[in-house]
Amino acid sequence: MKKLLLSLILICGALNSNAQSSSTKEIAYVKNITPSGNLAQKYTDAIRNNVIQGLIESKRLMVKDIKSDQQFQAEWAKRGEDSSISEEEYGFQILRNLNARWVIGGNITRVEAVKKDTYYSATILISLDIIDVATGTIKTQESLSSELSIIEIGGNSTTGSTEDEALSNAAKVFTNRAKTFAENNFELLGAILEVSSEKKGKAEEVYIDLGESSGVKEGDAFEVFESRIIAGRQSKKKIGELKVKAVEGDDLALCKVTKSGDVILQKIQALGEGEQLQIESKRKKKPII
C-alpha cells in the first residue's frame, strides 16, 4: 500500500511541481570570453571550453555555445549590412526569439606563469557575467580563480615542467569552477514528496522530486520553505533544511532532515490536497585556498 501511495505521489509531483527537469531547464548561451593582453588564442579557447563543460556538468541549464549554435548563427547571418540596430541589440533579439533566458560571458583578468626551481606554476583569474536576455542587464558578476585549495591539490595541478604545461593545467581547473558557479547562481527548485521516516514527532527522512537529471548528488543541501498568500501577496518562510542521503532516480532523492524536523512534519501533516512544501538548493561554500 505504501509503495502504491508513493507512486501516486510521484506522478502528481511530476505533473505539479516546479522542479527543473530537462524539458524545463532555462536556456543559457555562452558568448566570448575576452583574453587578457596577448594571451595565446589556444589558452583562451581552452578556458572557454572548460567553462562550457563545467556549466553542462552542473545540469542546471540547457547550455549552448553561441559560436557554434546553428540556429543563432543562421539568424545572425541575416543581419548583413543593416546598421539600423546595434549588433548587441540584434543579438539579444535573436536570443529572445530562441527562448534563451541567460547569456554567460566574461573576461580573463590575469594570467601568470612563474618559473620555480625545477617547474612552472601558473595562475589564471577570470570574471564571469550572467546577463538577463530579457533586459540585457547583468544579473551576477563573479571572479573565479585557478588557485587550488588544499583538498583540491590531490586531483588537480596548476604546475608543469614547461610554461605551456602549467597554463594548460590551470585552464582545466575552470571546469570545476564553472560547475560550482552554475550551482551557486542557478538554484534548484523542487518540493518534498512525502515523509519517509519519522520519530518522536520529527521528520527524519523525506523524499524530494529532484534527482539525477537535475545534477543532485549525495551531500547536497536544501532549504525548506512554506509559501502562503497574505493579503494577495506571497509569503515565503524558511522552516528547515535537508541534506541528500541517496539519489534514487532522475527526479527522486532521499534526504535526511538536518534542521527543524518537528516543524517540517507539522507543516506536511497540515497541508491540504495538492499542496507541497517547496525546497531550494543552498549555495555551495567556496573552497578555502
Please tally the helical runs, counting DSSP H or I stretches of 4 or more residues.
Answer: 7
Radius of gyration: 23 Å
Shape: flat
Strand count, sense and closure of the main sheet? 6 strands, mixed
Could you estimate the helical fraction of the residues in percent? 25-40%
Per DSSP E runs of 2 or more residues, the count of β-strands stands at 12
Poorly predicted ranges (pLDDT <50, ≥5 residues)?
Answer: 1-23
Overall description:
This protein starts with a helix and ends in an 8-residue tail after the last strand. The protein is an alpha+beta fold. The strands form 2 sheets. Strands 1, 2, 3, 4, 5 and 6 form a 6-stranded mixed sheet that branches. The longest helix has 18 residues, at 41-58. The protein has helices at residues 2-16, 41-58, 70-77, 87-97, 163-172, 174-185, 261-270; strands at 27-34, 62-65, 100-115, 120-132, 137-145, 159-160, 189-199, 202-208, 221-230, 233-249, 252-259, 278-281. α2 (41-58) runs parallel beside α5 and α2 (41-58) crosses α6. β1 (27-34), α2 (41-58) and β2 form a beta-alpha-beta unit. It contains 7 helices and 12 strands. Helices cover 29% and strands 38% of the residues.
